[in-house]
Amino acid sequence: MRRRLLLAALVALAIPGCGGEEPSASGAADVALLPAEIATLDGLFATNCAGCHREGGPAPFALLDARDRRRRARQIAEVVGSRYMPPWLPDRDLEPLVGARGLDEDEIALVERWARTGAPGADLAPPAGEGDLGPPDLVLEAAGPIAIPAEGAGIQHTLVYRPDLAAPRDLRALAYRPGNPGALHGGGLLLDASGGARRLDERSPEAGYRSPGGMGYSLVGSLDAFSPGARPQPWPDDATPRLAPGETISLELHLNPRGRLEEERGALRVWFAPPGPRDEVVPLAIGSLCIDIPPGARDYRVEDEIELDRDVRLVGLFPMARYVCQEVTLRVTPPGGTPRTVFRIRDFDLNWVQRYQFAAPIVLPAGSRIAMEMVYDNSRANPQNPRAAPERVRAGMRAIDEAGFVILHLAAATADDAAALRRRHEDGFRLRLERRRAWEAQRPR
User: DSSP per residue over 252-288, as a string?
Assistant: First the structure.
């Protein structure tokens, strides 16, 4: 609902000349901003806006130039005041997350006062693409470009990279640098030791393959995701995923047709962690494949819970859902303790979801329980519902189908623990597929 109410403001924001000074709510003149306040505002815009709103970026207009911000000042204040921008889905009052965007109440008030007092400020420097990571250790390029049609729905295309490693390496960070950033609205990364990605790639006549309903094989190695404007997110110094010789890295790109034939050809950039002892981060999925949402349903729920059989640290997570998902909640319960909500999204948006990493990993001893809940709204009231008239929505591999998983990223202290978690992840997917087949056999068509 919040998105729908703000649509008019967003449309106006894209129209130059819609800004301007306004009186304060009390009718009294606002006090001019101090130089220190202007510098604070420039910093807020650089941190929260410049990643997308720059020349060649994914946003429809740039805000690095002070004149551009001044022309759109009123609408900037509106979307910031409503918390629609900067985009950040999770609740901010739970466990702190790395890279959280957003402004507090005092900062929002400062932006609103800025808009009413002439929107002063300086031009901003283009943001550094990869922050403080420095040059990548490895740059991987696709064999050829991806063709983007002029019209139609967004496309999903998976590229498969084959790092030539002689020994296992711990990953510090991964980042995709697009060749055509305006056509890209996000993607996901996955490590594959099964050979499934390689086989799909070899069957395709082009670089990579179209993947409208997912990467086409098990999500056992689900690793990372990114959204427009997001900088690479390094893993913790003491806990990282491990890339083994022979494994491939799959990158699923979500690309948008923009009225003309285009191509995308970027590069995957890889940073390795320095040698040293650290825990291995292993994915573990919780969720369900048994999703069947009736037309008009506004409170359809998917729930799942696991009990840990060994000590781990919860480093982060990645929610996997699509268009009619509205809420995502994750709770942890220590042995003999009470449930605690550690993560929640109240207004899910597929366009802005990413990998989330806790500022301090959550220690979970053996016997702890982790529970997820997703709530779906398959009604006309959900502005993210892509259907003109609500219809039955089920879990599936097509882009218009739904999903209901949270991929947990768990730090395992020993190689045996990491191997056991990987087996549990794989066995869990097989069990869910068996449940899905049994469930399908009992469902009305």
Answer: EEEE---SS-EEE--EEEEEEPPSS--EEEEEEEEE-
Backbone angles phi, psi at 258, to 5 degrees: -130, 30
If you compute the radius of gyration of the chain from its CA atoms, what whole number of angstroms results? Answer: 23
Contacts of 273 (CB under 8 A, 6+ apart): 169, 170, 171, 172, 235, 237, 240
The three-state secondary structure class of 13 is helix
Reported as a single tens digit per residue, the pLDDT across 257-304 is 888 999 999 899 999 999 999 999 999 999 999 999 999 999 999 999
The torsion angles phi and psi of 361, rounded to 5 degrees, stand at -50, 145
Tokens of 415: 């190689």
d(CA 148, CA 253): 11
Do the Cβ atoms of 182 and 57 come closer than 8 Å?
yes
Residue 121 to residue 314: CA distance in whole angstroms: 41
Which residues, including other chains, have CB under 8 Å from residue 53's CB and lie 6 or more apart? 59, 61, 62, 63, 64
Angle between helices 73-81 and 105-116 in degrees, nearest 10? 160
Instruction: Tell me which residue of 302, 244, 240 sits closest to 273, measured CA to CA.
Output: 240
More confident residue, 394 or 131: 394
d(C-alpha 183, C-alpha 151), whole Å: 12
Cα separation, 187 vs 251, in Å, equals: 7
| pLDDT single digits (tens) 381-410 | 998 888 878 899 998 766 678 889 999 999
Sign of CA dihedral 359, 420, 374, 154: positive
Exposure string over 337-366, b if 16+ CB within 10 A, otherwise e: eeeeebbbbeebbbebbbbbbbeebbebee
CA distance linking residue 119 with residue 72, whole number of Å: 9
DSSP states along 124-141: -PPPPTTTT--S-SEEEE
Strand-pairing partners, residue 343, are: 330
pTM of the model: 0.86
Judged by phi (left if over 0) then psi (alpha if -120 to 50, else beta), residue 118 lies in left
Is the bond leading into 126 cis (omega within 30 degrees of zero)?
no
Q: Which of 109, 360, 141, 61 shows the shortest CA–CA distance to 237?
A: 360
Helix (H) / strand (E) containing 177: strand 169-177
State the chain's maximal CA–CA distance in angstroms: 70
